[in-house]
Amino acid sequence: MKVKYYTGSSLAEAITKAKQEHGSDIILLDSKEIDDTLNGQKIVQVSISVDEGNGKVKAWNPPSVKKNPKQLKASEVETKEDFNSVIANILSRKPKTLEQEKKILDELAELKEQINKLQQANFNEQLPLPQNYQQILVGLQEKGFPRKMAEDLVKRVYQLSPKGPKASKREIIYGLKKELREKMRFFDLSALKSSDKQKVIMVVGPTGSGKTTMTMKLAAHPKILANREVAIISTDPYGPSEALKAFSKMSGVTVIEKKRNDELSALLQKLKDYETVIVDVAGNSPFAPNFVKKMEEYQKIVNPDEIFFVAALNTDLDDLFSAASVYMLLKPTGLLLTKMDESMRIGKFFTLMEELELPVVAFGDGKRIFIDIALPEESYIFEKVFEGLA
To answer: Total structural domains in the chain?
Structure first.
C-alpha cells in the first residue's frame, strides 16, 4: 500500500484526478486546503492509499449523465455529477477515523449548500414567470397580498410543481393552498362551548371595528355560544345600543348595562351562575391618554379567561397595526376579524396572521346578526381569496 497526494480546485476535482490514475480502488485518507504557490489561491489536497502490488490499474471515468436541455443547463449537470461521485466514494470507502469522516462530511455539506444557493439564484433570475403563474401572481396582489409574499408563494409553487411551466391555473392554486395552510391559525372553539366552568370573555378593539355586533354574533351562533347560558355586559357610557336591546329580546340573552367601573366587580359576581359572560368593552382610541392603564384596570377587575381583539379588514393595514400594537399589550388570546364583506383585499388576512400571530375565532361578513358570521375554516378564506382567479 502506498500513500499518494493529488490537488485540485475543489475536493471533487482532486478525487477525480486520483481515480483517473489509480481506478476506483482507492481509499481516501485525508483532505485539506493548502496555498497554491503559483497563483496564490487556495486549492484542495487529498491523500489516498492505493494498492500497486499487481501493477494493474482499472480504468476509471466519471459516470455519464444523460443531459436534458429542457430541464438542466450543462453547468448544472456537471455540478450535480461531481457532487454525486464524491458522495458515492465516501459511502463506499469508510475513512479510518471519526475525525476524518466528520471533516469530509462537513466539506460535503458546504459544497451542497453552495450548489443550492447557485440553483436558487438561477431560479430567481428566471423572469418573467410563465403566463399562468404571472396571471395568478397579479391576481394575488390585487387581492391584497404584499408583493414579496405573493412572489415568494408563486415561485415556490413553480419550483415544486410536477408540471412546472405547463401547470394549469387550477393546479397552481392547489399548490398555493398547500402553502397558505401553513400560515393559518384558528381558535379551538370547543374550549368555549364545552367547558364546565364559567368562561369570561373580554372583547376589545378600536372604535367602529364592530365589537358589539361581533359579541352578539358569538352569542347567537349555534356552533359557538348559542347553546350556553350567556350574559353580555355593555360598558358603553351611553348604555346598550338599540341593536343590543333588540337582540336581547329576540334571543333571550341577558344584556346588562355597566355605568361605573366600581360596579363591574359586583356585577360579575351576580352573574356567576351564567355559563358565559361577555364583557363588551367600549371603543376608544388606543392613542388616547392613559388608554393602556385604563384597559389594564379593566382586565384586572374582569380577570377574563379569553381576550378577543377585534380587527376590521376594511381598515388600512398601517393604521390597524398601529392600534394592534397597543392592544397586544393586553396579551389577547384570539382575533375576531370583521367587515370581510367591505374589503376586496382579502389577502390582508395572511399579513395579519404573520404579524399578530393570533388564532382567528370567527369572521364577521355582514350586519345580519344571526346569518353573517363564518366559523374559522380554511374553506371560507380560500373561497374569498381565489374567487375569480382560476
So the answer is: 3
